[in-house]
Design goal:
single chain, 73 residues, mainly beta, 5-stranded mixed β-barrel, 5 strands, 58% strand
Length: 73
């Protein structure tokens, strides 16, 4: 399952040293959780605030699996 779509950040919590698990809300795919590598960096933190609008490139093997995402403001 791969898609690129506008999304809103609902929540973000740290996972490991540099990663973050975010919950995204998209128009066509609904609510999705994803791992964002490097999300705990100073550069990414402003974009991971609840309510922030981002462009998400989401990837997962199946729809039931936790996917990974690359986010852009």
């Amino acid at each position: 399952m791969d898609f690129t779509e506008d999304a809103f950040v609902l929540a973000a919590r740290s996972h490991g040293d540099t990663g973050v698990i975010v919950e995204l809300l998209t128009e066509t795919h609904g609510r999705r959780a994803a791992y964002v590598a490097g999300g705990a960096s100073r550069k990414m933190k402003p974009f991971l605030q609840p309510g922030a609008r981002v462009v998400a490139e989401y990837r997962a093997r199946t729809s039931e699996q936790l996917g990974s995402a690359r986010l852009e403001p």
